[in-house]
Gnk2-homologous domain-containing protein
Amino acid sequence: MKSPSRVAIMLMLSPLMFNVAKGATHTGIVYWACNTGSYSSGDPYANSLAYLLEHMVTVTSNHANYNYSTASPYPTAIAYGHVICSQALSYSDCGICMSFVKSQILAICPDSLGAQVKLEDCRTRYKNYSFSG
């Protein structure tokens, strides 16, 4: 039988082992799709989408299971979004993945009313109408 002190030390070190086991972010593009509808740079939807994407990048890693759905706060041109990170990622790696997927969705689907980009470890989806996660 193991001594209580040895068991206590192993229990204290176990969270450190889990952080080491978490892998680095994989940012290869697995899938993407762009809505055929578009908006112009002066359109209120442009501001709404910019807010939505930045907000999702900032808060996703703070939510349970790195899974977050939200809408922009602008009532005249609401953008709806859903993001998710792999639970194998650390808090900071989820944030890195979210920043990368945001840059990719804007580059691949510029001015699109809706888009989705899935990387190996995270994905982002947005539309100009409400949808379920």
Remarks:
- The beta strands are 29-34, 67-71, 80-85, 115-119, 122-127.
- The domain at 44-127 is CATH 3.30.430.20 (Killer Toxin P4; Chain A).
- The two ends are 48 Å apart (CA to CA).
- Residues 4-21 form the longest helix (18 residues).
